[in-house]
Design brief:
Elements (H helix, E strand, L loop, with lengths): L24 H4 L40 H19 L6 H12 L4 E4 L6 H11 L4 E5 L6 H5 E6 L4 E6 L6 E5 L6 H13 L1 E4 L2 E4 L5 E6 L12 H4 L4 E3 L6 H10 L13 H11 L6 H16 L3 E3 L3 H17 L7 H12 L4 E2 L1 H5 L4 H11 L10
Parallel strand pairs: 1-8, 1-9, 2-5, 5-8
Antiparallel strand pairs: 3-4, 6-7, 10-11
Length: 385
């Protein structure tokens, strides 16, 4: 998944990339290059020779054909252009960058549990800049009100009507900083927005736009004056991960990078291109073999003796959805069992509720998911374990 240092840097990606149009009709019908587990059963690429719709064109219709290989390669170019741009800001954290980007391409949201000063705010701002989008930062405090997040209706005396004033949630990338410091009432104000991508004020719904990504943070060390996130809200985050401290080499690059004035990060793609990539991710092929593997992993979390509450149906959907974005980011139009296995930990661990005895013994949700990955056999190409 990670690009090697020798890989060419894609730079800004054109929305009319010529690689999206097959050179000849024969090229469009060429056999798929790989027959890895989870690949579509057909040996030829899906029919169709049209180019990928440019940003601003009509979205991909429901029931469209499976993703074509050239379209998967375009998604890969967009993905790695963003990842390379963010890699210049967040040094030495390629894995975290790719997880956050994959969540964005999958239409999910991210929970970062990390100590202060590791680059969470820089990551959110850099992502918004790379996709030429808008960003906002909400500092959650005990006195923060739901209207401070979503916006409020204000009466206009001249017009004699209520006028909606949008809150900071109306941005492409929203950083909800220290979300566990706000009251449960304010935390719940995020639920509809994260799930439905819209805000309802006085019975009127307002769409927040697309792409839309919430990056919420919480401090795992300082718990005084905080409100623990309920399971219903944790379940709405596609992944939970952490940036962590950089290694010595990355830390040295950071110190050298911050000695002078910082040049603003130049956009490498547009929000329309990201929205188009999200639509294409919907068309990545998921075989019954791969879907069954995801189901077995989720069910295994429910049977684990250390677990009181296992992963939910939403967790299974998030695992498969993120795997489709992960596959497209690798230039594939199908999901493999390794994609699911690679993403199980950040997708499932935060959804588990452990038994009190297990917590007392020092067992963590990450350890439970790790054991599940060892216990559940990875399916092979012929469908046998």
């Amino acid at each position: 998944m990670n690009a090697s240092p020798q890989d060419p840097q894609p730079g800004p990606v054109a929305d009319d990339d010529p690689t999206l149009v097959p050179a000849t009709p024969a090229a469009a019908a060429a056999p798929a290059a790989s027959a890895a587990p989870g690949a579509p059963g057909a040996t030829a690429a899906p029919a169709g020779t049209g180019a990928l719709p440019a940003p601003g064109a009509a979205t991909v219709p429901a029931g469209a054909d499976a993703l074509r290989p050239e379209q998967a390669r375009w998604v890969q170019q967009v993905f790695h252009a963003c990842a390379d741009a963010l890699g210049g800001v967040i040094q030495g954290k390629r894995r975290v960058i790719e997880l956050v980007l994959a969540s964005a391409f999958a239409g999910g949201h991210v929970l970062l549990e990390d100590v202060p000063g590791t680059g969470k705010t820089a990551l959110a701002r850099a992502l918004a800049a790379a996709i030429q989008g808008t960003s906002s930062r909400i500092q959650f405090t005990p006195d923060l009100l739901p209207g401070d997040v979503t916006g409020i209706s204000v009466f206009d005396q001249r017009a004699g009507v209520f006028e909606f004033h949008a809150g900071p949630i109306f941005a492409n990338v929203v950083l909800a900083d220290e979300i566990n410091r706000a009251s449960p009432k304010t935390q719940s104000a995020l639920l509809e927005v994260m799930e439905e991508s819209r805000v309802t004020i006085d019975g009127v719904s307002h769409d927040v736009g697309s792409p839309f990504l919430v990056i919420a943070t919480q401090n795992p060390v300082e718990q005084a004056g905080t409100y623990r996130l309920p399971e219903a809200q944790l379940d709405r985050f596609m992944i939970k991960t952490s940036i962590g401290y950089p290694d010595a080499a990355a830390m040295l690059r950071i110190l050298q990078q911050h000695r002078g004035a910082q040049a603003p990060l130049e956009p490498v793609v547009t929000t329309a291109m990201v929205a188009q990539a999200q639509a294409l991710v919907d068309r990545v092929h998921v075989s019954p073999l791969v879907a069954d593997y995801a189901v077995q992993l989720v069910e295994a979390t429910r049977r684990a003796r250390e677990v009181r509450l296992g992963a939910s149906v939403r967790g299974a959907l998030a695992l498969v959805r993120l795997a489709t974005a992960w596959a497209a980011a690798a230039g594939r139009n199908y999901v493999t069992p390794d994609d699911v296995r690679d993403l199980a930990l950040p997708v499932l661990a935060h959804r588990l509720v452990l038994e009190p005895e297990a917590e007392f013994d020092g067992v963590t949700a990450e350890q439970v998911v790790g054991q599940v990955l060892l216990d559940v056999p990875v399916p092979q190409e012929n469908g046998t374990a």
